[in-house]
C-alpha cells in the first residue's frame, strides 16, 4: 500500500503523539480530522460542518481562511523566508512588529523578545527574572510565585510554574525548589462564609505571609494570568490583581502578566492587565492572538527599566533565544493580523458582541446542571455541578464536560471540555446570530445530558 492510499485518520493514529494524548481513547477512536476552516466554521474530512466556539485554542481571533493573511504570509516567504535574529541581526518585519507591540503595550513596556509561542515566552520571562535581579545586585532574589489552577505552558520550566489540575502526572518530573504556589482566586469556591471582599483580603494576606516566610530578598517574580484561562476561566475578585501588584512593588518583585490568552482582543483590549485590572506589569507574555494562530509566534514584552538594568555595564550577554525568534514570516503574519483587528474594529466587536455572549451564557445558570457561568466577553466557562446549592461535583468518571461537548459536536458545535467544565473562546468576528446559535445549541446539549444522567439514576440536587 502506498502512502497516498492511507487515510489521514490511519496515518495519524499509527504515528502521531498529540499534546495531552489520552492513550486508551486515542488508540480506540483516533482523531477527528479537520480539513478546512472559514471564519468561525470548520469542516471535517467527512464534510460535516461545525461552529468552532473554542476558537482553535483561544487563538483564531480574526477567523480562519483570510485571503489577505495568506497573501501576506506568501509574499514574505518569497521575499525573505528566514533570517536569524541572533546578536546583531534583524529583519524588517521583526523590527516593525517590535515597534508596533511597544506602541500597544501599556506604560514603559517598550522592549520585545520574540519566541516560538506562549510556553517559550513564559520560560524566557522566568529566566529574565533571575538575570534582572542578579544585575540589580540581588543574586538570591530568583524564586518564583504563581497560583494553583494556573497554566503557563508546557516546557519543563513553564509547566513547573503553572499548576493546573490534571497537568501534573507521576511519569514526569517538575521543578519544585524555588517555585511557590498560592491559592487560585476562585471566588465560586471561596471558603465558606467569605464574601468577595473578605476572600480578596485572604488571598493578599496569603501572599504577604509567603513573602514573610520565604523572605522578600529571595522572591524575584510573580506570574499571573489576568484571567486563569485553562484553569477554568477564573476571574479574580475585584481589586485582587491590583493589590497583588502593589505587594510586588513594595517588595521589588517583578509582576509578569501572562496574557497569552487575554491579549489581542479576547476580552476587548490589546492587553487586559492595565485596561481591565489596573495593573502595570513589568513583563507581559503573549502569543495565540498575536497571529490569530496562522503562524506560531510568541513575545515577551518588558520594561525600559529592566532593559536599562541588564544593559548597564555594556558587557553582559543575554544568552537566551530561539532559532525562530523574530522569524520574518511569523512577524509579517502578526503585523497583518494587528492591521485587520484595527481596521475592522474587532476590539470593539469583542466588547459589543462579547456583552451579548456573556448575557446569553449567564442565562444557562437557570439549568439544574449549571452551577456557574463566568468569564469576560469572548472568554466564557460553564461549570457543571451535581447540586447547585452545595456546589457538589459529579463523579469524575461520568466526565460530564466531555458528554456535553460530544452532544454539542453531534449538533455541529465545538466547545472545549475540561473535566466538569465547558469552555468557549470564539473568534472576535462573532455576530449576534452566532451568539444565539452557540447559546441555543449548548443549552440543548446540557438538557440532553441532564436527562441521560437522570435515566442513569445519578444523584442530582
UniProtKB/TrEMBL annotation:
Keywords for the protein's UniProt record, in alphabetical order: Aminotransferase, Pyridoxal phosphate, Transferase
Q: Which Gene3D superfamilies match?
A: Aspartate Aminotransferase, domain 1, Type I PLP-dependent aspartate aminotransferase-like (Major domain)
Cofactor requirements of the protein: pyridoxal 5'-phosphate
What GO molecular functions are on record for this protein?
pyridoxal phosphate binding; transaminase activity
Q: Where is the signal peptide?
A: none
Task: List the Pfam families hit by this protein, alphabetically.
Answer: Aminotran_3
Q: Which NCBIfam families match?
A: PRK07036.1
Q: Return the similarity comment.
A: Belongs to the class-III pyridoxal-phosphate-dependent aminotransferase family.
In Swiss-Prot or TrEMBL terms, this protein is called: Aminotransferase
Give the organism, scientific name.
Answer: Cereibacter changlensis
Amino acid at each position: 500500500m502506498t502512502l497516498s492510499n492511507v487515510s489521514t485518520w490511519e496515518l495519524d493514529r499509527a504515528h502521531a503523539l498529540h499534546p495531552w494524548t489520552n492513550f486508551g481513547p486515542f488508540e480506540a477512536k483516533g482523531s477527528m480530522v479537520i480539513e478546512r476552516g472559514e471564519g468561525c466554521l470548520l469542516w471535517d474530512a467527512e464534510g460535516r460542518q461545525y461552529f468552532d466556539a473554542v476558537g482553535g485554542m483561544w487563538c483564531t481571533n480574526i477567523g480562519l481562511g483570510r485571503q489577505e493573511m495568506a497573501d501576506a504570509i506568501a509574499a514574505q516567504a518569497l521575499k525573505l523566508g528566514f533570517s536569524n535574529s541572533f546578536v546583531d541581526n534583524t529583519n524588517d518585519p521583526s523590527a516593525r512588529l517590535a515597534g508596533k507591540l511597544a506602541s500597544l503595550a501599556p506604560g514603559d513596556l517598550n522592549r520585545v523578545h520574540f519566541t516560538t509561542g506562549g510556553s517559550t515566552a513564559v520560560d524566557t520571562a522566568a529566566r529574565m527574572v533571575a538575570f534582572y535581579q542578579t544585575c540589580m545586585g540581588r543574586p538570591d532574589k530568583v524564586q518564583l510565585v504563581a497560583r494553583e489552577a494556573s497554566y503557563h505552558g508546557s516546557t519543563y520550566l513553564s509547566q513547573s510554574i503553572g499548576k493546573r489540575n490534571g497537568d501534573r502526572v507521576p511519569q514526569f518530573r517538575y521543578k519544585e525548589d524555588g517555585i511557590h504556589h498560592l491559592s487560585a482566586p476562585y471566588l465560586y469556591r471561596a471558603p465558606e462564609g467569605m464574601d468577595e471582599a473578605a476572600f480578596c483580603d485572604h488571598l493578599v494576606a496569603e501572599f504577604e505571609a509567603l513573602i514573610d516566610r520565604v523572605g522578600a530578598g529571595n522572591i524575584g517574580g510573580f506570574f499571573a494570568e489576568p484571567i486563569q484561562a485553562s484553569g477554568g476561566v477564573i476571574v479574580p475578585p475585584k481589586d485582587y490583581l491590583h493589590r497583588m501588584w502593589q505587594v510586588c512593588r513594595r517588595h521589588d518583585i517583578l509582576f509578569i502578566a501572562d496574557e497569552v490568552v487575554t491579549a489581542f482582543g479576547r476580552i476587548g483590549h490589546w492587553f487586559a492587565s492595565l485596561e481591565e485590572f489596573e495593573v502595570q506589569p513589568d513583563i507581559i507574555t503573549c502569543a495565540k492572538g498575536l497571529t490569530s494562530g496562522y503562524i506560531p509566534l510568541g513575545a515577551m514584552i518588558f520594561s525600559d527599566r529592566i532593559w536599562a538594568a541588564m544593559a548597564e555595564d555594556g558587557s553582559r550577554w543575554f544568552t537566551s533565544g530561539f532559532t525562530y525568534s523574530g522569524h520574518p514570516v511569523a512577524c509579517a503574519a502578526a503585523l497583518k493580523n494587528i492591521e485587520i483587528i484595527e481596521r475592522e474594529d474587532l476590539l470593539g466587536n469583542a466588547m459589543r458582541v462579547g456583552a451579548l455572549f456573556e448575557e446569553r451564557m449567564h442565562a444557562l445558570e437557570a439549568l439544574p446542571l449549571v452551577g456557574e457561568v463566568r468569564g469576560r466577553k469572548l472568554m466564557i466557562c460553564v461549570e457543571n455541578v451535581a447540586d447547585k446549592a452545595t456546589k457538589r461535583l459529579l463523579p469524575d468518571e461520568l466526565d460530564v464536560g466531555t458528554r456535553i461537548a460530544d452532544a454539542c459536536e453531534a449538533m455541529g458545535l465545538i466547545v472545549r471540555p475540561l473535566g466538569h467544565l465547558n469552555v468557549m473562546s470564539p473568534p472576535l468576528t462573532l455576530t449576534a446570530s452566532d451568539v444565539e446559535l452557540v447559546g441555543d445549541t449548548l443549552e440543548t446539549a446540557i438538557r440532553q445530558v441532564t436527562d441521560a444522567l437522570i435515566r442513569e439514576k445519578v444523584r442530582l440536587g
